[in-house]
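Hey,
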Amino acid sequence: MSKETGLKHRPKPKKQDVKISEEEKKLLEKMKDLDKEPEITNEEASILDILTKRKTIDQITREFNLVLKPLGKSLFSKDQILKLLDGLEEKKLIQRIEAPIGIVYVNSAYIRYKMRGTEKL
């Protein structure tokens, strides 16, 4: 016993080697590939932040350029935004939906979240 603390010295636990079978290694590799998120640019990330609800191309372009204008950066045209949206759609991060007001875009994660909840799109 230590005179100062009055406690006994605790033994340090021994480190154990974890043994993983070949089958488990293969499963871990498959899971690692599934967990990968597609790489996106800063512009695509900005668009995903904008798409919290259904939005038309005009609304997306307006909100996207609102951030760029005060920074003195060149503004994006509708065609440039459409190219970014097409790239995000190919990566299955957003969905294009035909609505009465025209074509709208929505974040796929938002759709999944709302389908599980009570709020309708």
